[in-house]
Design a protein that fits this description.
- The structure is a single chain.
- By secondary structure, the chain is mainly α.
- The chain has 2 domains: 352 residues, no CATH class; 49 residues, no CATH class.
- The chain is built from 16 helices and 2 strands.
- It has a two-stranded antiparallel sheet.
- Helix 3 crosses helix 8, helix 5 runs antiparallel to helix 6 and helix 13 runs antiparallel to helix 14.
- The longest helix has 41 residues.
- The relative contact order is 0.17.
- The C terminus is likely disordered.
Length: 438
Amino acid sequence: MEHITLLLGIVIVTALVFDFTNGFHDTANAMATTISTGALKPKTAVAMSAVLNLVGAFLSVEVAKTISGGIINEDGLKTEVIFAALVGAILWNLLTWLVGLPSSSSHALFGGLIGAAVMSMGWSSVNGGTVVTKVLLPAVAAPLVAGIAATLATRLTYKISSRADEKATSKGYRAGQIASAGLVSLAHGTNDAQKTMGIITLALITGGVLNPGANPPMWVIVSAGVAIALGTYLGGWRIIRTMGKGLTELAPPQGFAAQTSAATAILTSSHIGFSLSTTQVCSGAVMGAGLGRKGGVVRWSTATRMFVAWGLTLPAAGLVGAGAELLTKQGTWGIATTAALLIGGSAVIWSLSRRQPVDHTNVTDDKIGTPGADAEPAGVVTTAIAAVTPPPAGPVAATATPSEDTDATGTTDVRMTISPASAASATATADAARPATV
């Protein structure tokens, strides 16, 4: 009994660590556009998001019930399986944070849980129907719905404000952004904080502390809310920069449209118990807002890397979770080894992140190559437009410069180098001087 009690305590602490990483990993969902458009200062934005995440954790338990009693069959489930699942989720969260990719913490958790359960009890331990209807389908539909909604909202916003004073509307939209960012943070608390509540509740059920189907106790709700709020306050600055600057350049009207669309989708899913990826919803809304503005460009190189990370999240976290479960089932030494690998892997990733630190002082830095700046090449559309853009018109400049080349015989050959722009201007001048032919 002592061993089970100790293991259960380790699982609860590990779950709260995951919740903490979920907080700083997903801060960008609510605050990236608000920070990038200058509506709020970085530290103020993450502090506001942290408070509202904490409040949101108390508003519903539907998502927690989906996790604790839906995805995995509770019969025969062991506490070490949950520990192995959390190891896979935490390591994937930290790895994607290191490279600045807004992947799904939710899918990392589900992947780790499925992989560990399959390694422990086989495929029959997974409720395939629940996984498809409440995880996979929302993962595909939610970013599309949020993106389309954000595109339409952006176009409508610009159409309504087309005749208004730009400075006045920008102030209004910045205020609207603050309100919508708060709504996204609240929605994030109602969805993502509950995932940790569900995991802890599931661990308590497997340990015999709670009866199957029980709701999360109040201390579980409070601890999960505090953990995600603390993680949010630290700020996942690397991912904030990718969301705010890496995908597209957003003006205040676009930021307002993106965040309002995302908040609506997240709150709706929380109400019906869908364990939605807030990262995917907010990323889809940001891309939709970028496409909604006339002349707006999405950097598809960054978006493609993000899509690949989304696709890899479930299987990658599942493989790590399965490997961790293979160790934990060996007994006490296996559990200790898994914990040591988790701590060591986390320390390595943290030390790598310190080589190019990103924080609130440089999160909006546009300069490529500065410390902490993740060099991002121009998108395909941007490159194509730049390639066909003619040189700017202007007065003819005397850019012909003499150069001397000496050949093998000692004869000096004097040449004139004329830039293409000057050549074009000279041709236009000559055509103007030539008499017109009737």
